[in-house]
Amino acid sequence: MSSTTLFVKWMIPVAIVWGLSYPLTKLVSEYSSPMIISVARVAVGFIFFYSLSRSLSIGVKQFINGLLNFVGLLTFLNLGVYFSRNPGLVAVMIYTQPLFILVIEYILGTRIKTKGTIGIILGVIGITAAAFVSFDLGLLFGLLGGLVWAIGTVYYRRNLLKEDIVRLNASMALTSLPILLVLTPIDFHFTFTLTAISLIIILALIAQVGGFFFWFNAVKYLGSIKAGTGSLLVPVMAYVLSYAFFRTIPTPIEIIGSAITLIGVYLTMTS
């Protein structure tokens, strides 16, 4: 099977599923507080991953990894979507993760190629331009999500790279759940209706089960670099689907800034 066929088979569904999760999260947040959404996603994720692995990988490093990649990322992502008018722009902020990874690796002593440096500069310019006319608390949370995701990714690469990814995700979900449950009083609200419950379950199934199913296969068949580069379609799809859901039209500066940011991210990922 050709690489193009594999890309269409695995990465296009990733872009659609995870792109859909942003406006869907915004819709669900009308019925539920961000922390309850996080709990639901992680709980469904645990059921999915544990059903595949039937075992766990427990330890301090695994716990820290879950704290960063599950608790931190999901909390900031959901808060970002909750407080922002445009879920698509929050997706761009979340996907600044590779920019932060390069900066962190540089601080830790890794050499950065010229292409990566240019990518970081473009990323900063793009973020500044996009946020200049529409900065809000949601975008700040989105950026913090990108930063925490980057720290978690670097931590995983340096400490847990040899771990079975399915067992690791099951363990992260299990150890993250009690912490997320403790945080549920933050801005607590939940409209107990069939619509609200259905939307949360659909979001959890789409984002955690469907998203990770396609993502793991994309990484397996395409490799991490091609899959990572292809994931830049996610914020693009988030923009498109946010318009479909809410008729949210980004301003010209937001579009230009987001495009510059994604070009910068692409350069860092391929440097």
TrEMBL record:
Pfam family, one: EamA
The keyword Transmembrane helix is annotated on this UniProt entry: yes
GO cellular component, one term: plasma membrane
Swiss-Prot/TrEMBL keywords: Cell membrane, Membrane, Transmembrane, Transmembrane helix
Main location: membrane
Residues annotated as transmembrane: 7-25, 31-51, 63-83, 89-109, 116-133, 139-156, 168-186, 192-215, 227-246, 252-269
Domain EamA: 10-128, 137-269
Annotated localization: Cell membrane
Superkingdom as given in the UniProt entry: Archaea
Membrane topology of this protein: Multi-pass membrane protein
UniProt entry tagged with the keyword Manganese: no
Signal sequence segment: none
InterPro entries in the cross-refs: AA-Vitamin_Transporters, EamA_dom, EmrE-like
This protein's name: DMT family transporter
Organism in which the protein naturally occurs: Sulfurisphaera tokodaii
